[in-house]
Amino acid sequence: MFFKRKSNINLDNIPTHIAMIMDGNGRWAKKRGLSRSVGHRYGIENLKTVVELNLKFKIKFLTVYAFSIENWKRPKDEIETLFELMKQFFDSYGQELSDKGVRIKVIGTRENLSNDILEIIDKVENMTKDNDDLTLLIAFNYGFSEEILTCVKKITHKCLNNELTISDINNELIENNLYTSGVPNVDLLIRTSGEQRLSNFLLLQCSYAELYFTEVYWPDFKEQEYLAALNEYQKRQRRFGGL
């Protein structure tokens, strides 16, 4: 069988859904004598680079871990920086992404988010809702334990209202009540900075994901590292429990 190739990547074996834990901004900055806030600024700039790479290789779904529920434990000034950077990302890059056929969907709880953040999320989601070249899911104020709790509450509410019965509850129903409803499960999970854990990120959606960990900090995760991750993915034999 003949395979078209781009940068030694087999274009007939591309992940449908890539998830990324963008880790190491603070350590990247500390190594250079800079503040953690500067590291986060370089990190958000690199997100633009990685989105472009996903467009280049025609990945249909990309989910990035931008701010976890646990991140509220961080210093107030760092949290404010992260929120401001997210607003700037949407303001400065949202229209360009829309023009390139990217749909933006923010997943996570909306609790504790300020009105200005909620307004800009609604704006960019509505602006890009009809695009389908790439769906960019931004996990913001997200944690899987909260996601599954929300799912259980939704289903329980429907049962109490006689919209569902216990016998209606199955895997498909659960998946349809997650934040990622309508999105295929993750094929490849990438985490930067050398950490090797999932950190409460898409635990059900990553049930059969291939895991790729790199020592490279997120601001330095450029095309070479991206290609290395895709190459490693293409070496794996995905059996999904079979032979």
Concise summary:
The protein has helices spanning 25-31, 36-56, 76-99, 115-128, 144-160, 171-176, 223-235; strands spanning 5-6, 9-10, 17-21, 61-68, 102-107, 134-142, 188-191, 210-213. By secondary structure, it is an alpha/beta fold. α2 runs parallel beside α3 (76-99) and α3 packs parallel to α4.
Q: Helix and strand layout, with pairings?
A:
Elements: E1 5-6, E2 9-10, E3 17-21, H1 25-31, H2 36-56, E4 61-68, H3 76-99, E5 102-107, H4 115-128, E6 134-142, H5 144-160, H6 171-176, E7 188-191, E8 210-213, H7 223-235
Parallel strand pairs: 3-4, 3-7, 4-6, 5-6, 7-8
Antiparallel strand pairs: 1-2
Helix pairs in contact: 1-2, 2-3, 3-4
Structure description:
This protein is 42% helix and 16% strand. The protein has 243 residues and is an alpha/beta fold. The chain has a single domain (12-143, 184-235), classed as Decaprenyl diphosphate synthase-like (Undecaprenyl pyrophosphate synthetase). A six-stranded parallel sheet has the order 5-6-4-3-7-8, with helices on both faces. Strand 1 (5-6) and strand 2 form a beta hairpin. Helix 2 packs parallel to helix 3 (76-99) and helix 3 runs parallel beside helix 4. The longest helix has 24 residues, at 76-99. It is globular. The two termini are 23 Å apart. Mean pLDDT is 95; it is low at 1-5.
